[in-house]
Amino acid sequence: MSWLVTGGAGYIGSHVVRAFIEQGITPIVVDDLSSGHREFVPDGVDFVEGQVQDTSLLERTMREHDVEGVMHIAGYKYAGVSVARPLHTYSQNVQGTAAVLEAMQRVGVSRIVFSSSAAVYGTPDVDLVTEDQPTAPESPYGQSKLIGEWLLADQARALELTDGATPLQHVSLRYFNVVGSGTDEVYDTSPHNLFPLVIEALIEGRTPRINGTDYPTPDGTCVRDYVHVADLATSHVAAATAMAEGRELRPVYNLGSGDGLSVREIMDAMQRGTGHTFEPVIGERRPGDPARIVANGDAAARDLDWRMRHSIDDMVTSAWQARTAHPDISE
Fold first, then answer.
1. Which part of the chain has CATH 3.90.25.10?
2. How far apart are CA 252 and CA 170, in angstroms?
3. 141, 175, 187, 253: which is the annotated catalytic residue?
4. Burial 266-284 (b: 16+ CB within 10 A, else e)
5. What is the rounded CA–CA span in Å between residue 109 and residue 190?
6. pLDDT tens digits, residue range 228-262?
7. DSSP letters along 91-115, please?
8. Distance CA 93, CA 95 (A)
9. How far is CA 272 from the centre of its chain?
10. CA angle 171, 176, 179 (to 5 degrees)
11. Which residues contact 212 (CB under 8 A, 6 or more apart)?
């Protein structure tokens, strides 16, 4: 059994690759290395460098490796920046997903797990978001992920109406802040995510920053789900395995903690986990950042082996350890 992992050289994707290997499933990685890193791909894993919008490349790779499913993780993942770069965001996330589905249809690959986002909910008017919550994304990034989900559903319906076509099995996984590390070989290199921003600041002797303290939350800072990347990877592979076993799945699952943590609480955990004492600098809000998103993960817990195996202190400690295991990149 082999699965194609788009974006498999990235922070999340490379953890999914490792989770596949642990389950005895062969991963094939396609990544253009625009934000991923070749060294994040484990030795012995077949790697194809190329863009996810390249349908011919995807088709050729699927045929050559007898792929039975696609883990579609590649994409532009920065909600705040997407406000200033909507065309780029839609190109990467919408055209990329369409290319993946087109290549799958050409080859006859019938299973896809899509890396979506809790950003599709915008700013919910409930304390705990379930999969039935109306979608109302507030950034091009969130919009692009919702469109990706629509593409999967529309393609599945189209194939049902096509004589001789293989039905499409699809699952979209919605989550928000992914943190920590499951191995010292991989760390979050995003220039926009909270954990690497704080960690890089501490390594460079700068004071970490909080973007906005006037949100309608208990301490005025944004409240989010923070989930450990290894837990996330486990449930991605569980979705692939469930499809292979013929189990019935929902089209959408939240991979949510059920509890929110504020940015201020993350800063406190950073001080505990890194041994650095600091008082954060207070800055302006970032465009596209909702005040609160906390998701209910009960459905995923039932069907996809989803659970929070790591505390916030585990998340901080593992992220710090993985990053500081690579001191040469700061030179």
1. 179-225+257-295+308-330
2. 9
3. 141
4. bbebbbebbebeeebeeee
5. 31
6. 999 999 999 999 999 999 999 999 999 999 988 99
7. IIIIIHHHHHHHHHHHHT--EEEEE
8. 6
9. 26
10. 110
11. 220, 221, 222, 283, 284, 285, 286, 289
CA 111 to chain centre: 18
Confirm if 8 and 17 have CB atoms less than 8 A apart.
yes
Residue recorded with tokens 């011919």:
56
Q: What is the DSSP string of 178-229?
A: EE--SSTT-----SSSHHHHHHHHHHTTPPPEEE-S-SSSTTSS-EE-EEEH
151 and 101 Cβ atoms separated by less than 8 Å? yes
Domain with CATH 3.40.50.720 in the chain: 2-176+227-254
According to DSSP, the residues that pair with 226 across neighbouring strands are 177
The two most distant CA atoms of the chain are separated, in Å, by 64
- Among residues 238, 200, 239, 191, the alpha carbon closest in space to that of 77 is found at 191
Counting residues of the chain whose pLDDT is more than 70, the rounded percentage is 99
Determine whether 187 is an active site residue.
Answer: no
Rounded distance, CA 243 to CA 246, Å?
5
The answer to whether residues 10 and 73 touch, using CB atoms and an 8 Å cutoff, is yes
pTM: 0.94
Lookup: tokens for 175: 């989550």
Reported CATH class of domain 179-225+257-295+308-330: alpha beta
Burial of 220 (0-12, 13-18, 19+ CB in 10 A): middle
Indicate the CATH number for domain 2-176+227-254: 3.40.50.720
Q: What is the pLDDT of residue 125?
A: 84
Cα angle 123, 112, 161; round to 5: 100
